[in-house]
Amino acid sequence: MTSADWGGNRRIRKKLATRQALEEAALRLFAERGYEGTTVEEIAEAAGVAERTFFRYFASKQHILLGDVAQGRIAALRTALWGRPEGEPVLDSIDTVLEGLDLADPEDRRQILERLRLLRTQPGLLGTYLLLNRDLAGVVAEFAAARTPGMVVTDLYPQLVAAATSGAWDTALVAWLASDGQDDLGDLRRAAFAALTAGLRGGDPRIDPARS
């Protein structure tokens, strides 16, 4: 390995350390002072960096609250769903995509678990979490409607599929947090999704009572 390679590695490690310091400072201050009571300037100061450095790593306070895993999940979900084969059953497509998006990386799980713990102690942050869950449901509803002949996104079937998908993720997270991250999050999500979609399988989704 050349000296340039080592220099590159040091820069990467420094960036990762700075990012982690900002994240840890923010979560600590959110827990102590509340989300609204904490400024970006205070987060940067607590991490020992300039305020402009904060914005090199995070677009906003909300970004650091939700974390890269949560922020990127919606975009990844949309891309993966629309990459599924035409004609594949909607629920099978969603099930396959969710399997690929399950949090296998320990660092991803750590990010999510820390934020869930914060949400438990700071109920005022729940609105941000609910908005994220709504966005997830919206992506699923659009996909279910587009892949089901004669459906529009506001019809009963796409909305039920979306509610089951976001509900499975939410209930799995609740159970996972209760176990302090010891249970397998993927297993919990799979069990919740299977239970919540059982009534949507086997029938004709085009028969929508809301439109009759």
Describe what you observe in this structure.
The chain has 212 residues and is mainly α. Helix content is 72%, strand content 0%. The protein is built from nine helices and no strands. It starts with a helix and ends in a 15-residue tail after the last helix. The N terminus and C terminus are likely disordered.
Concise structural overview:
The chain is an all-alpha fold and 212 residues long.
Provide keyphrases for this structure.
mainly alpha; disordered N terminus; disordered C terminus
Give the secondary structure arrangement, pairings included.
Blueprint: H1 3-33, H2 40-47, H3 51-57, H4 61-82, H5 90-101, H6 106-121, H7 126-146, H8 156-178, H9 185-197
Helix pairs in contact: 1-2, 1-4, 2-3, 4-5, 4-6, 4-7, 7-8, 8-9
